[in-house]
Amino acid sequence: MSTEKFTQIYQQLNKDNLELLGELYSEDVTFIDPLNKIEGLDDLTVYFADLYENVSSISFDFIEIKSLENSHFVTWNMNLAHSKLNQGKSYVVPGVTHLQTDENDKINYHRDYFDAGKMLYEQIPVLGTIIAWIKRKL
Length: 138
What we know:
Structural class: alpha+beta
């Protein structure tokens, strides 16, 4: 799997072309992010369908990619607009992805590291205000 293929597919991925996931991921992929752990390509496709349901726009600025054999690290900024978060306005969430590929050059392990508070909780009106207040106090 070339990291170029990964970045290209993620730049075009949306709710209408989730079949592209099959070009990247093995049938037995493990996908982990701060909110979920998904096992298998079918469940991953369902997860992405749910994620993209209320997304009005999403894009990634890929910053740096490092690879060593079948292990890859990708740093990125996700530009996201979601109808139910941040009043539908776009916002940026930085993150890192760790990928591992199998002998067929498909991703069999994908782990995202990002601040779930920045992505989700801080974008909810009342809860976001409370979290911002707590952060200032710390």
